Amino acid sequence: MDFTFRQIKLLQLLDQSDLPLSGKQLSEALDVSLRTVQNEVRDINHGDFGRLILSDGHGYSINRAVMKDRSILVRQSRALEMDSDLTALLKLLTLDHASIHFDTLCDQLYLSSSAANRKLKKLDEILQKYHLSLSKKRNYISIQGNENNKRQLIYDMIVRETDANFNSPDAIGKYFTDLNFTRIQDIVVQAIHRHNYYLEPCHTSNLIINLMVCLSRIRNHFPTEYPELNIHPDSTEYQIAEEICEKLGEHWSFLFGSEDISFIGVLIAGHIKAVCPAPSQEDHEHQLFFIEKIILETFNYYRLDFHDPSFLNNFVYHIMALIRRARNSQYVTNLVSENVRELNPFIYDVSVHLAHTLEKEFHINVIEDEINLLSIYIGLMIRPSFGRDYVRVLLICEEYHHIAEYLSRRLQTDFAEKLQIVDVLTSIPSNLSTQNIDLIIHTIPLHILGAQTLLISPFYQKSDSLAVENRLDRILLEHQNLQYRSLLLTYFNQALFFRNEGIRTKEEAIRFLGHHLEHMGICRQGFTESVMHREALASTCFFESFAVPHAIELDAKFTQFCVLIEEEGILWDDAKISCVFMIAVNEADNDKFSTIYGGLVDLLCDKTALGQIIEARDFAAFISCFE
Fold first, then answer.
1. What does the alpha-carbon distance between residue 162 and residue 29 come to, in Å, rounded to a whole number?
2. Smaller CB count within 10 Å for the chain: N or C?
3. Cα(first)–Cα(last) distance of the chain, in Å?
4. Dihedral angle sign, alpha carbons of residues 609, 611, 617, 619
């Protein structure tokens, strides 16, 4: 495997660091998006050298056991030119020429025949992932396969190579000779505005890049076999596409056929929204009502409340656009919504449930990027269902120039959401009780055994405010972890704790744990298949360290965990993990599912806690990890 320059730089950063580096730190150091970092880590770990990068809740680190030989990086640095050749080869065959003579290809890329053949072999491996293939007839090279798959390949190549930096002319200029991104964007946006519609910012770049791919292939006379295009010439999207094609034709002397216009209209569908929606037809109104019903049923199922009910209408229209994109096999890239699953697993799970319902009702496929966008909407809409926690504070300070009153007022103003001042003392009593006190903030030197204390200045400077905030956050986190542990302890059962059963794959683990839950009568027959289906929608593996599989339906007889620990590891998607917590949830605990699921993930993100759980030799030792 030949690493790219960015992959080598990423490995060097990790190799030079004694501590794990977060995805954010790596993205800033490499000047790329978080998603690009995640993709690079995945690609590196899929390579010939095995899993070079480890990850957990603290970040990424180099696998010292695997990469003992630092010369790996030196050797790979020398092979970077080959990677750029492969990109150039792909561009040549997808954007510049429908077919090209092998000798011409070698001349244009300055490759020997043997080097070109090696590159073509590597390219064919990439094409297979898109259900495409290389064809070589009479020494002419071309790419064969479905047009949609070809355009998806091109789109992915551009996104990957430019880090989705679509607003930089230099970043995308090398792919589209004589096509100006900014000019095309102006033509498209103006045409859409003239029809009283607008483009959402998160979709603008996706649409323009897809359109530029389309224009480049039309200009270079690539044979196009369009799929069945479900768009009527009287539709707004078709009329906008017609206007866009007319303007582009004037500017670049393009000739567009009716199928080309239809295809561009399909690209536009699902990306635009009416500035002032016209009166809807009866079937349109029915679909809006049906989508709203699905949203409300999903929220009721998880017992969620709306934080802002007025947001519901926007969400309905977003899902309408999602359905159109799905039906037209359109693709979206949303850097804003990266890492949603790890940051809030419960909201992501609600989104997966909603996506599953949409797939079933509208016969579509909802891709992961769309699920991420659903998560963003849902996160903005719901009201937190858990109770507020406060740090109970005792304030001890001098009664001098009203310092006690001043400090009390400042603390309650700055940290109204985090603390409650239980009492204010101006001297230290001999029988001071710290019962029901979480923290003593004081300006008078004192030593109290068994109590958390924080000395601050009576002047309450910026450093004092930061010290108070850090201590409050630490105590609140301790409270949260204690609550999580207490709650989780009620759902473990010795009969459902398994260790070193010889399970080695994800499917084996799911079927093993699901069988025991069904056999004990905790879950209905079919529970295991529901877990398998939920896993197919989106992985329940977190940070390549542990998995929390569960069914789509929350209909267990009662809520219970079924735990499997395998010290030799279980292959779960692309990661090897040692810990699986399968959850079966009863409907009566739907309102607790957020805390159960999110709480478990938060606890397992602690590398030390996870290590202790994996090392637990029996159920008693396992339970002690949560006490």
1. 16
2. C
3. 46
4. positive
> pLDDT category, 384, cuts 50, 70, 90?
low
245 exposed, middle or buried (CB, 10 Å; 0-12, 13-18, 19+)? buried
Going by pLDDT thresholds of 50, 70 and 90, the confidence category of residue 74 is very low
User: What's residue 416's pLDDT?
Assistant: 86
Q: With the CA atoms of 473, 476, 478 and 481 taken in that order, what torsion angle do they form, in degrees rounded to the nearest 10?
A: -120
Of 351, 373, 475, 458, nearest in space to 420 by CA: 475
Containing 316, the helix (H) or strand (E) segment is helix 311-327
Rounded Cα distance, 47 and 37, in Å = 16
Residue whose structure tokens are 């003392």:
425
Choose between 74 and 419: higher pLDDT. Answer: 419
Q: What letter does residue 505 receive in the DSSP assignment?
A: B
CB 192 within 8 A of CB 272: yes
- CA pair distance 529, 518, nearest whole angstrom: 11
| pLDDT bracket for residue 512 (50, 70, 90) | very high
Task: Report the largest interatomic distance among the alpha carbons of the chain, rounded to a whole angstrom.
Answer: 99
Helix (H), strand (E) at residue 281 = none
Retrieve residue 350's tokens: 């609600």
Whether residue 574 contacts residue 46, with contact meaning beta carbons closer than 8 Å, is answered with yes
Block residue for tokens 């120039």:
401
* Separation CA 481–CA 487 (nearest Å): 10
CB of 500 closer than 8 Å to CB of 566: yes
pTM over 0.70, yes/no: no
CA angle, corner 65, sides to 60 and 67, nearest 5?
75
What six digits make up the tokens of 461?
């400077």
Distances (CA, A) of 283 to 279, 286, 287, 290, 292: 12, 5, 6, 10, 14
**Whether residue 331 has pLDDT greater than 70:** no
How far apart CA 196 and CA 274 sit, in angstroms, is 6
Q: Which residues contact 332 (CB under 8 A, 6 or more apart)?
A: 202, 203, 206, 325, 367, 369, 370, 373
Tens of pLDDT, residue by residue over 425-472, are: 887 777 777 777 889 999 888 777 678 889 998 888 888 898 999 889
CB 162 within 8 A of CB 172: yes
Letter string b/e over residues 25-34, b meaning 16 or more CB atoms within 10 A of that residue's CB: bbbeebebbb
Question: For residue 342, which amino acid is it?
Answer: E
Name 520's Cβ contacts closer than 8 Å, sequence gap at least 6. Answer: 495, 496
The pLDDT of 24-43, averaged and rounded, is 82
The answer to whether residues 163 and 33 touch, using CB atoms and an 8 Å cutoff, is yes
**What torsion do the CA atoms of 510, 515, 516, 520 make, to the nearest 10 degrees?**
140
pLDDT of residue 201: 65
